[in-house]
Amino acid sequence: MIDGPHSSEVEDKEEEESMRGSKDTVPLLINSASEIPEVYDALLSKIGFTCRLALIVITSGLGLLSDALEIMSIGFAKAYIAKEFQLTRQEESTLSGVLFAGMLIGGLFWGRCADMFGRRSVLIISLSMNGLSAAVSSLSPTFWLFLVARFFSGIGVGGSLPIIFSYVSEWSSRKVKGGLISTVATCWMAGTIVAAGLAWAILPLPETPGQFWQPWRTYLLVASLPSLIAVFLYILLPESPVFLIDVGRKDEAVTVIRGYAEGVPNTQDEFCVLKRLIEDTSNNTNNQRQTIGDMVIEFLTGNVKLFRRRLLKTTLVLMAVILPVHFGYYGFMLWFPEYLDHQSTKEGTIRPPEWIYIESFYVSLASLPTNIFTILLSDKIGHSRLLSASLVLSAGSVFLLWKLDGPDWTVVLSCLFNAVTAPVFCMVDTIVPALYPADSRGTAFGFHTALIRIVSMIATWVFSLFIDSSPTIPILMTAIILLTSAFISLKVPSGSFVH
Predict the structure, then answer these.
(1) How far apart are the first and last CA of the chain?
(2) What is the pLDDT of residue 179?
(3) N or C, where is the chain less crowded by C-beta within 10 Å?
(4) What's the Rg (C-alpha) of the chain?
(5) DSSP label at 494?
(6) 62 and 226 in contact (C-beta within 8 Å)?
(7) Whole-angstrom Cα distance, residue 98 to residue 176?
(8) Residue 204's closest CA among 220, 219, 225, 184?
């Protein structure tokens, strides 16, 4: 464990003496709960990037990689699964549908649970559900059992996606928050690369007629492992101290923060002031045992908080930015390759089967330079500014289709579009947890993630209507949507609920 029971009578005595001395050296008042975020942020800034923070980032990155791997693996294995179970075209379409349906439910359910029961606890449960359900799907003897397993896997993915960024955000100081969250977000790119690489290595292996175990089962089983490894690492990590403070678990919060700051010089003053603040405000925190009825009511009314006066503007503005972005992105990224493949088929050009793996490699790697740029400079440029600029560039890149339309440009244009939109998603992942208080952070991220699933499914259907038609309408629709989001992103509220 990163944190541990380091307190003792000697340490407590030393801390009390340090607190008495720190009143003159630290210009911070300790009589208001409103000062906890500032003192906590100052402490995180002094602690800096340590091995403890590195483990938090690596573990969260692995969790996000496993989510990307889970989503992408179905796309690569779909044809083999359809052949195994002799699926119709309609039944084949349900393979991705049940996963996204599970993600929608998981986002709403686990997001609220994270605000009530803890980030780390819910991450362990949701990632376990993801990994175990994915493994079960690889062993499924029937199609319907396979669908049930993938549905529960989707519930796990839908839960871990929003909570990962909330968890990392609550361990990050403001001056490096964008860089750390962007580092974790880059692992989504890594997950798509791993998914393509494993598919290329495993799926083309020779099948054994009449045998139960086929290469696609091996592929899905291997793809389930990263989430289970992430579960083990999260068990070694502490709960978010921000959550512990918010729910009034003061002793646990102090123990976690003490362990996190242990061994880092020049942090004693900030730690002692923060400890006093936590102790002084804990009596004002509702830490009473709730009945099951109270917990059910709190759970069901969680999303209502997002539309109350304090958060209404934030929620509506973020919806106006996030939903159009994902509508345009998913719609375009699914429509464009299919459109060009359709044109190629008309012209008699047939691509080799391994082309799908090669294209996935290139498109995923294209976002690496812009991800690195975001990691290094997002906190200096400003999160909202980078979001708006990236949206404008994304809209501009779409217009290149009119000049470079043709099957040979599929990978080039997909790479360009994916590269310029990468900072958009990094900044969304940074901004959302910053604009909500701790008691609504997981709920808010889960709510927005659930809406994204709905919008993505609608976009897939809408853009599919233009596979056989001129590309003019999809190009204009995507560009206008992205430009509109860029304009609205200028209205994203300034400031933040720091923690």
Answers:
(1) 23
(2) 93
(3) N
(4) 24
(5) S
(6) yes
(7) 37
(8) 219
